[in-house]
Amino acid sequence: MSGPTQQYDWGNISGDEPAEKTRPERMPVPAHLSSDIGLLVLRLVVGASFAAAGARTLFGVAGGIGLDASATALADAGFTSFAGPLAWVLAVGQLVLGVLLVLGLLTPFAAAGLLASKAVAVVVALVPALSVPLFASDGVNSLELDLLLGAGAAALVFAGAGRIALDAGRTYQRRPLPWSVLSLLVAVAVALLVLFVLRR
């Protein structure tokens, strides 16, 4: 005799289906065009914003403050010993990782690096002053933009690039959760390293 079966109203001609279904070992890439378009828009906005910030700092274009002024700002924020190298790494990192997001290449890793930079920026702004305005309309150097860009990067760590990207079909897109968790742990480790080792 065959194994236990269950009746269902719609399906194949026989009307019988095995009670236990085989669970696939690897999740398929979600095939929702609307999600792909939404992730593309998110990648373009977040990635281009970071890339533009990096380019403005690195080359001093479009009203950017340049590397020297960026190093001075980092020194004022407590990164006295490593202000120069950090300014360079931050500018290059934002530019390169932002471009990777726009292309949808190595998305969870690029997003994790950018998330780490915004996490550091928020912590530095909040501690110990606790007087930084939240909304841009309440004053300059508000947290609103940092929080929005950080949240966008965090969303891309977990959601991935979608299928309209160079990442389409890669292993970390097919099985996103383990890679997302790994990327998040790396982001936390980098942020803690910058805050507690390089801030002196």
UniProtKB/TrEMBL annotation:
Subcellular localization: Cell membrane
Stretch list, region Disordered: 1-26
Keywords noted in UniProt: Cell membrane, Membrane, Transmembrane, Transmembrane helix
Residue stretches spanning the membrane: 40-66, 86-107, 119-136, 148-166, 178-198
UniProt cross-references to InterPro entries, sorted A to Z: DoxX, DoxX-like_oxidoreductase
GO CC annotation, single: plasma membrane
Membrane topology summary: Multi-pass membrane protein
Family to which the UniProt record says this protein belongs: Belongs to the DoxX family.
Official protein name in the record: Oxidoreductase
Organism: Pseudonocardia alni (Amycolata alni)
